[in-house]
Amino acid sequence: MFTIFRLAHIVFVALRYRLDELVLSGIKHPVAYALLRIVRFGRPPKMARGLRLRLALETLGPIYVKFGQVLSTRRDLIPLDVAIELAMLQDRVPPFPSDVAAASIEAALGASPHTLFKHFETDPVASASIAQVHFAVLHDGRDVAVKVLRPGMRDIIEKDLALLRVLAGLVERMAADGRRLKPRQVVAEFDNYLHDELDLIREASNCSQLRRNFSVESGREELLMVPEVVWEYCATTVFTMERMYGIPVSHIDRLRAAGIDTKELGRKGVEIFFTQVFADGFFHADMHPGNIYVSDEPATLGRYIALDFGIVGSLSEFDKNYLAQNFLAFFQRDYHRVAQLHIESGWVPPTTREEELEGAVRAVCEPYFDRPLSEISLGQVLLRLFQTSRRFNVEIQPQLVLLQKTLLNIEGIGRELDPNLDLWQTAKPYLEKWMHERVGLKGLRTQLEKEAAQWSQILPQIPRLVYANLNRTDTGPALNLELQRLRRAQEQTNRLLVALSAIAAVALGVAVWALTRQ
Questions:
Q1: Which listed residue (286, 296, 418, 422) is catalytic?
Q2: 20 is catalytic
Q3: pLDDT digits (tens, 9 = 90+) for 334-363
Q4: pTM exceeds 0.85 for this model
């Protein structure tokens, strides 16, 4: 019942903001023009199309706001005016009342924010789809940012997810590509990540892990800055962290005015992404411009700052190895190896002909190489690959959906910073180095060092275990005798069954003969 009401609400919002007109205006067909004249009733909408779409997404709730956030980074796929308007969803979602935020903090931490903090700003500095942020000062003088969860979010998200599950089930049953795309599994993954965002303790843990991965000890502190978690002021609905100072990555003019090399920044962004994915298998999966800043402090000028850790992705060793080999094969234009990897991984049926899949992948990718990023749309490449995958029944892997989304975000940010950035050439040296360290002598040494602690406990026991095994009573003859007895018993049983079958057959024959004689 809730799903029906929610669907009705979505239709109502779409009609209220004239999204039907927005869709029809983008279709170049006589039938679409005729329908457009009907829905307009002779008058065009009063509000701009981008504004109408943004307001509709804000009205529908957090899932739709996140969809708009992703769209805002794809200016190669949507009109510029729509992208600019949707960019406001990244940190300008209407806030909820400050007294409600204060009450949430008091309920979670046991005291009023004006008691817990030396100073607490009642007006939020940023408001997003899941939570909003207030600046504060601790009693020891440290500047912090306090993130407070929006009230009632769980019920709203549950209704939307219920609708998505119904739609995913319909797609899986009715669409030709439904089973291959695994829509229900994709919705289940999305469900997990959204519920993770509703637990700010989990987000604080993600933040702490990412900070450790880019700490001074890791040797990567020059790439990414991550705020420190203030655990004493954290709960499931409140997350307090170190306040970070910087410029939003989308404010290109401010970055250049601060003396920051935007081209170098674009290159570092690609390096950060591949470092998180392949070195750690743990990556920030919500990297839209509203969550990425650049430090303008003299000591850390030009370093990236990561914020909002509600959605992170994890990859297994198999996934990392498979993806790295695929990327390298693409970079080297080894389309035969790409086809082999898809077949070996089980993503396509084993009966698929390698040369056919190789030719299809080559036809998609070859036209895009040797071009600057400004002329390459990864979205278009993925779209063509998707169309090609139908022919070969490629199964979409739900665990990689977040990685695909994050890669699209990286492309959007890179395009803003440096239109001529070559994504392929920037990533290729890093991946080649990573594969060399993984499969070469250095990789062997690393694995031996990782297993050394376990082997240090096992190795001393090996002589004792070998001696005990050699001195163990030989049970071979006894086992052979037992097997022979079982074989003789089985043969006797078989002979008895044959005799009984013969007697039954004779009795049946006699009965039939007697009946026919009467």
A1: 286
A2: no
A3: 888 888 887 777 767 777 788 888 888 888
A4: no
